[in-house]
Amino acid sequence: MRRVLRAAAGVGLACALVATPAAAVAGVAPLRVMTGSMTGSYDVGAVVLVRAHPATVAVGDVVQVDRDPGDRRPGVVHRVVAVQGGHIRTRGDANVGADPGWTPIDAVQGQVVGALHGPAARLYGAFRTPAGQALTALAALTLLWPAPARRRRRTRPTAHDARVRTDPHAPRLDEAGRTGAAGVTRRQVREAAAT
Questions:
Q1: β-bridge pairing 62-65 and 108-116
Q2: Which residue, 79, 142, 182, 186, shows the most beta carbons closer than 10 Å to its own?
Q3: CB of 51 within 8 A of CB of 111?
Q4: Are 68 and 107 in contact (CB under 8 A)?
C-alpha cells in the first residue's frame, strides 16, 4: 500500500513541478484575479491562464488589456463587448456598463484560455510562494527517498530441522506440516527421525 501511495504522490508532484514550465513553453502564463469585476466567470483569487498576443480578437473573448503602458502591474482582464476597426470595447462581467473609451487592439496583451478555481487556485497560489516551493521540494525528497528494507523475522532452527535438512532420506514437509504421503504429520516425522 505504501508503494502505491508513494507512486501516486510522486506522479502528482511531478505534474505540479512540470505544469508551470510546460505552460510557459506553450506560451500560457498564469495571472491571479485580484478584483471582483469578473465575478461569476472568474472570482477573486481564481487563476486565469493567458495566452500572449492572440492572432484575432472577437466579441465574447476574455482578454488581458494593458490600459497604462507605464504601469508595471498586469493589465485588466475583461470581456470584449464590441470590435470596431482597430479598437475594442471591454466590460467586466460583474460591471453594469462597458469600460470607458475604446482600446487599441495593440494593447491586448493576451487572451484567457483557461482558469483554475477554488482549491486548485489556492494550491497553485501556495506553490508559487518560496515557502510553498520549499515544502514541495521537501515532500519530493520524502516521497522519493527509498524506504528502509523490511527485515523478515527469522526463527531459530531446531535440532529436528537440522536433521531433516541433512538427512537426504528424511521426508519433506509442505506448508501445512504434511509430507508427500497423505496423513503423515510433523509429529510422526519427528518420531521417525528420533529413532
A1: antiparallel
A2: 79
A3: yes
A4: no
Tell me the HSE value of 20 on the side-chain side, using a 13 A CA sphere.
Answer: 12
Helix axes 159-166, 186-194, angle to 10 degrees: 80
Is 108:57 a contact under the CB 8 Å cutoff? Answer: yes
Domains observed in the chain: 2-144 (2.10.109.10), 159-194 (no CATH)
Mind giving me the DSSP string for 24-53?
HHTTEEEEE--SSTTTTTS-TT-EEEEEES
Distance (Å, whole) CA 117 – CA 38 = 13
| Residue whose grid cell is 470595447 | 89
Length of the chain: 195
Q: Quick one: cell of 158? A: 531446531
